[in-house]
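Let's sit down with a protein and look at its sequence and fold side by side. Once you have written the record down, we can walk along the chain together.
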Amino acid sequence: NVYKHKLKGKIKKMNQFYVINGRPKIGKDTFVSIVKEHLTESNYLVHNISTMEPLLKFIDDLGLNKEKTLKNRKMFSLLKEAVDIQGYTFSRTKEKICEICKENKNYNNIIFIHCREPKEIDKYVEFLHAKTILITSPEVEKLQIDYGNNSDNNVNNYNYDYIINNHKPIKIKSQQEINEIYKKTVEDFINYVVCK
């Protein structure tokens, strides 16, 4: 693959951290998975973690439904807001990040951190010197959807370093078509951000 061959001469010897945000189902995980696919043959390891992960066991222990319905998204948002009064998710996510870097110290780690709340995003920017990414879609924004919780509704209320436009028509596309739309954008991101 010519594109992957070109990358080998551009590898940066360091860990990189990106806080990634966007509306529900806007394509955040897809973006990360394509970045990972393109860097498979390089010395990069791409990690995809969420600040909600520390709460999932707690939710399981309570026997609560974790399906991402509007009602449950509101519950997730309220729970996270409550425990973050004492910095719970930041503390646990910070431990997870340090563990990843220690276990993979011979690699260049790229860690994508999914985080919704502006005040929480600031913590990762300060602690990790992380860059911030917003995945957005003009088509989705025009719908002005009320997700029923502050975390999802306020994702645009932050000054992001990078804004990735996923022009995603309202008509549902196949995963393969979505990946094709992202391909050129991801290649640009890798060339001009990751390997700069």
